[in-house]
């Protein structure tokens, strides 16, 4: 029997929905399988906003991917008319030697990205809501800003469907097997069994369960997002005045925040980068405690004192961390002819969603990509090579 599809994509969150669009746009017969509904808040791609930036402190190797992702985000907005990107500018704040500042500067210089260095007085002058200490500086980037996760997933789902992809929601994959000998894969759900030439697995926080044979020691981490109504109202926090920021303290703790993007009563969002607690998608505590809110309000009173006026709401989300916090994007080392994986986005993947979709389409259809993804090879994280 010939396979029912060219490619099956499992997990239609950020990465998987982008993959279905890029695969369908290249003429592949695509089946997408998703455990929950389209655009949901039980994984990692919800909460209204994600930071995007180019002077990447994590590693300069990400910059070419970011430049392509920016192009694709703008294309996504043009193709669907949805609001997905707001480039309000951004500041990476901390001491000059902090990873946030020094790492961002390294990427900016290496890739000749437009940026400015601001001392504490200049930060206060340009962005009066921010109150840096005298020994803190910032890298300011005009092309930084935010992307909207729900709108991005909805846009990719829309384009994939228009391109002929067959997307099944509320139909989780139960298991898969590689058939060997270039015969592709078989995928089982409660409803049916499907076959395809290739499987792309984008499981987010479900990676430890769905990709055990990858051998990567993932840590799933509970994260909290907080929305506050600033004292004195949101006007100074609107995106034409207020940048996105990542702010690193002397102890290495990073906090990040957004302008007020959802109207006068919805406040502005802030969160710790990392500092979460280990969890699983089944056991994550979704209730946010009062002491967590108080700790965030206290932290922000030192950096953005007008922000923690009134607490509005909080929500949880999951990071899927690899030990070195770099992504995993590759053909599966144990099933290179049949399976591609995209996981371990370690709390910084959303800004890459469209380019990851493009890379996954390349890997699934040709086995290779022109994008630089050597850093994301899972074999760097396994004790012994699997294949
Ligand atoms: C609080 C928070 C803040 C963040 N901030 C930023 C930021 O500012 N900038 C940035 O770039 N990144 C940020 N990130 C990271 C970014 O959001 C994630 O890297 C990205 O959303 C991961 O996408 P994903 O597709 O891997 O996971 P998800 O979007 O969670 O998708 C995985 C999907 O797989 C589905 N699934 C699981 N099991 C099955 C199964 N058996 N069958 C079918 N489907 C299945 C799930 O239901 C889910 O829809 C943040 C993340 C969080 C949680």
From TrEMBL:
GO MF annotations, alphabetized: N-methyl-L-amino-acid oxidase activity
SUPFAM superfamilies (UniProt xref): FAD-linked reductases, C-terminal domain, FAD/NAD(P)-binding domain
Keywords: FAD, Flavoprotein, Oxidoreductase
Listed name of the protein: N-methyl-L-tryptophan oxidase
Keyword Flavoprotein among record annotations: yes
NCBIfam families on file: PRK11259.1
EC number: 1.5.3.2
Lineage of source species: Bacteria, Bacillati, Actinomycetota, Actinomycetes, Kitasatosporales
Organism: Streptomyces albidochromogenes
Cofactor(s) the protein needs: FAD
Pfam short name (any one): DAO
Location of the FAD dependent oxidoreductase domain: 6-363
InterPro entries per UniProt: FAD-dep_OxRdtase, FAD/NAD-bd_sf, MTOX
